[in-house]
Amino acid sequence: MTAAEAEGDERAVEAALRPRSLDEVVGQARVRDQLGLVLEAARMRGRSPDHVLLSGPPGLGKTTLAMIIAHEMTAPLRLTSGPAITHAGDLAAILSGMNEGEVLFVDEIHRMSRPAEEMLYMAMEDFRVDVVIGKGPGATAIPLEIPPFTLVGATTRAGLLPGPLRDRFGFTAHLEYYEPHELDRIVHRSAGLLGVELRPDGSSEIASRSRGTPRIANRLLRRVRDFAQVRADGVVTLDVARAALDLYEVDELGLDRLDRAVLDALCRRFGGGPVGVSTLAVAVGEERETVEEVAEPFLVRNGFLARTPRGRIATRAAWHHLGLAAPAAVAD
Ligand code: ADP
């Protein structure tokens, strides 16, 4: 199998594990309740639901919820992403092909180009866009009607969205990291679907090392399953889970290689900070966005790293986790 085939295979497994209805969604109780109400009300009125904005770190269920919205409204779903919309024309092409009631999912909506964003304001509010033909003084704007649709936008950071765009969403939900007992349920559910034999303590070990993230829980389950098949008798016990996760360098608190690299650079190279996030990203050889949107939210939430106006600083817990003595001035 080539690397691309393996990746396609992983994606197919991920798709198979997605909950298909709100009832199947584990955790996020408040979002589920609120969204359920929005959808129910829209169904009763026979209208498209309001536009929905979902924010939160990667892997917490934004795409899953978009699919569920379409499924519960028995509406078709169209998927695109901010980086794929580089010109207003790209968006006009998508919008002009929409059917009534369709759900348009725009992942990473904060990365859409500015002109496209402005076109989207009008489309969201008036179900109309102005398509500009030509350039300079001879340019003309041709108004184009769009059938009512529901936009579901996903962003890792709602704060990056311009106010006018944020204001046009009728319902905004912020997804939080999951609690270990919720991840435990997700791991059990996935194991059932994948036909993996799982002991309760094996499952809770995977859950507690999953960085509060369902996508990671499912991925770790698959890696532990590989280990169980090859190195044990196929059953995921506590010992098997521990040995497999150690092999994959996921530590007992769920920090992965990138998380540890960030803390390591922060403590060892920059004396615990404060240091700018761009400098930190260069030090670990990653994009700034990856450090900011993937590693940091988890490290901040778990009290390892603090964002201050002067830059990032390591907490005492970070020094401790790396097995280093913290300088006396470090705050808890
Ligand atoms: P995002 O779009 O936020 O990056 P996804 O919706 O792609 O995240 O979710 C990643 C994976 O995690 C999906 O394959 C799905 O199986 C699983 N998942 C996410 N949220 C939940 C949930 N609340 N309950 C069960 N599984 C979930």
UniProtKB/TrEMBL annotation:
<feature type="binding site">
    <location>
        <position position="288"/>
    </location>
    <ligand>
        <name>DNA</name>
    </ligand>
</feature>
<feature type="binding site">
    <location>
        <position position="307"/>
    </location>
    <ligand>
        <name>DNA</name>
    </ligand>
</feature>
<dbReference type="InterPro" id="IPR041445">
    <property type="entry name" value="AAA_lid_4"/>
</dbReference>
<keyword id="KW-0227">DNA damage</keyword>
<dbReference type="InterPro" id="IPR036390">
    <property type="entry name" value="WH_DNA-bd_sf"/>
</dbReference>
<feature type="binding site">
    <location>
        <position position="64"/>
    </location>
    <ligand>
        <name>ATP</name>
    </ligand>
</feature>
<dbReference type="InterPro" id="IPR003593">
    <property type="entry name" value="AAA+_ATPase"/>
</dbReference>
<feature type="binding site">
    <location>
        <position position="63"/>
    </location>
    <ligand>
        <name>ATP</name>
    </ligand>
</feature>
<feature type="binding site">
    <location>
        <position position="312"/>
    </location>
    <ligand>
        <name>DNA</name>
    </ligand>
</feature>
<dbReference type="Pfam" id="PF05496">
    <property type="entry name" value="RuvB_N"/>
</dbReference>
<comment type="similarity">
    <text>Belongs to the RuvB family.</text>
</comment>
<feature type="region of interest" description="Head domain (RuvB-H)">
    <location>
        <begin position="252"/>
        <end position="332"/>
    </location>
</feature>
<dbReference type="GO" id="GO:0003678">
    <property type="term" value="F:DNA helicase activity"/>
</dbReference>
<feature type="binding site">
    <location>
        <position position="62"/>
    </location>
    <ligand>
        <name>ATP</name>
    </ligand>
</feature>
<dbReference type="Pfam" id="PF05491">
    <property type="entry name" value="WHD_RuvB"/>
</dbReference>
<feature type="binding site">
    <location>
        <position position="178"/>
    </location>
    <ligand>
        <name>ATP</name>
    </ligand>
</feature>
<keyword id="KW-0234">DNA repair</keyword>
<feature type="region of interest" description="Small ATPAse domain (RuvB-S)">
    <location>
        <begin position="179"/>
        <end position="249"/>
    </location>
</feature>
<keyword id="KW-0067">ATP-binding</keyword>
<keyword id="KW-0347">Helicase</keyword>
<feature type="binding site">
    <location>
        <position position="215"/>
    </location>
    <ligand>
        <name>ATP</name>
    </ligand>
</feature>
<dbReference type="InterPro" id="IPR008824">
    <property type="entry name" value="RuvB-like_N"/>
</dbReference>
<feature type="binding site">
    <location>
        <position position="168"/>
    </location>
    <ligand>
        <name>ATP</name>
    </ligand>
</feature>
<dbReference type="InterPro" id="IPR027417">
    <property type="entry name" value="P-loop_NTPase"/>
</dbReference>
<dbReference type="InterPro" id="IPR036388">
    <property type="entry name" value="WH-like_DNA-bd_sf"/>
</dbReference>
<feature type="binding site">
    <location>
        <position position="18"/>
    </location>
    <ligand>
        <name>ATP</name>
    </ligand>
</feature>
<keyword id="KW-0378">Hydrolase</keyword>
<comment type="function">
    <text>The RuvA-RuvB-RuvC complex processes Holliday junction (HJ) DNA during genetic recombination and DNA repair, while the RuvA-RuvB complex plays an important role in the rescue of blocked DNA replication forks via replication fork reversal (RFR). RuvA specifically binds to HJ cruciform DNA, conferring on it an open structure. The RuvB hexamer acts as an ATP-dependent pump, pulling dsDNA into and through the RuvAB complex. RuvB forms 2 homohexamers on either side of HJ DNA bound by 1 or 2 RuvA tetramers; 4 subunits per hexamer contact DNA at a time.</text>
</comment>
<feature type="domain" description="AAA+ ATPase">
    <location>
        <begin position="48"/>
        <end position="179"/>
    </location>
</feature>
<feature type="binding site">
    <location>
        <begin position="125"/>
        <end position="127"/>
    </location>
    <ligand>
        <name>ATP</name>
    </ligand>
</feature>
<dbReference type="Pfam" id="PF17864">
    <property type="entry name" value="AAA_lid_4"/>
</dbReference>
<dbReference type="GO" id="GO:0016787">
    <property type="term" value="F:hydrolase activity"/>
</dbReference>
<keyword id="KW-0238">DNA-binding</keyword>
<keyword id="KW-0233">DNA recombination</keyword>
<feature type="binding site">
    <location>
        <position position="63"/>
    </location>
    <ligand>
        <name>Mg(2+)</name>
    </ligand>
</feature>
<dbReference type="InterPro" id="IPR008823">
    <property type="entry name" value="RuvB_wg_C"/>
</dbReference>
<feature type="binding site">
    <location>
        <position position="17"/>
    </location>
    <ligand>
        <name>ATP</name>
    </ligand>
</feature>
<keyword id="KW-0547">Nucleotide-binding</keyword>
<protein>
    <recommendedName>
        <fullName>Holliday junction branch migration complex subunit RuvB</fullName>
        <ecNumber>3.6.4.-</ecNumber>
    </recommendedName>
</protein>
<keyword id="KW-0963">Cytoplasm</keyword>
<dbReference type="InterPro" id="IPR004605">
    <property type="entry name" value="DNA_helicase_Holl-junc_RuvB"/>
</dbReference>
<comment type="subunit">
    <text>Homohexamer. Forms an RuvA(8)-RuvB(12)-Holliday junction (HJ) complex. HJ DNA is sandwiched between 2 RuvA tetramers; dsDNA enters through RuvA and exits via RuvB. An RuvB hexamer assembles on each DNA strand where it exits the tetramer. Each RuvB hexamer is contacted by two RuvA subunits (via domain III) on 2 adjacent RuvB subunits; this complex drives branch migration. In the full resolvosome a probable DNA-RuvA(4)-RuvB(12)-RuvC(2) complex forms which resolves the HJ.</text>
</comment>
